[in-house]
Amino acid sequence: MKITNGKDFWAGVMFIAFGLGFMFVAQNYAMGNAVRMGPAYFPTVLGGMLAALGAVVFLRAFISKIEYPLRVFPFRLWYVLVGVGLGVVAYYTQPSRDAIMVWQIGHMLLAGLAVGLVFAAFGERSLWVILFSVVIFGYALKPLGLVLATGLLVSVSAWGGHEFKLKEVTIMSVLLAAFSVAAFVKGLGLPMNIWPGIWE
User: Fold this and answer.
1) Neighbouring residues of 10: CB distance < 8 A, sequence distance ≥ 6
2) Mean pLDDT in the chain?
3) What span, in angstroms and rounded, lies between the C-alpha atoms of 97 and 80?
């Protein structure tokens, strides 16, 4: 079969890779069930859905009537090399659980930067900025708390758009943070810090 739509091809590959990656990492945790979700339940279900969606998009690349060349995303090899190098440094300099907060935050930012650079090697700025903002959120959630990490997520992802409007970003950050606290901490009772540990 001939690939007619390179955009669908690469999007499908990316969705499948991320979905299977989430499912693979989640194997190390307890699954639970829909009523009493374990730590592996959410990433496994979402990863499976993402992989299934990726398979549909991937297959559509072979039957789409809209033609895009296979090389639709720019690739920057040096981003990958620097990202992998920083990832190795982050892996071998992991702080202990009782390390000071500044060291833990610094290490998380270094690891997030490593992953972000690997993302940034592929595609346009808006694609990797949004992916990078999710990685930053994951690393910042524990030390900064849900409210500040959500604000960081919205601010960084908004930077990937055509224009950055501070008022809109601030309103969206406040609304999303309030919803997250109400839904996940108060509603579902997930054990998350709402604010940094030194503020609670």
Assistant:
1) 72, 73, 122
2) 80
3) 29
Cα–Cα distance for residue pair 113/83, rounded to 1 Å: 7
Distant-in-sequence, close-in-space partners of 175: CB < 8 Å, separation ≥ 6: none
Residue 197: pLDDT over 80 = no
- DSSP-derived letter for residue 198 is G
Residue 161 has pLDDT above 80, yes or no: no
| Predicted structure pTM score | 0.52
- Give me the residues paired with residue 68 across strands: 5
Nearest Cα residue to 111 out of 131, 151, 146, 140:
140
Q: What is the pLDDT of residue 85?
A: 92
Counting other chains too, the contacts that 68-72 makes at CB distance below 8 Å and 24 or more residues apart are 68/4, 68/5, 68/6, 68/7, 68/8, 69/6, 70/3, 70/6, 70/9, 71/6, 72/6, 72/7, 72/10
Distance CA 37, CA 32 (A): 5
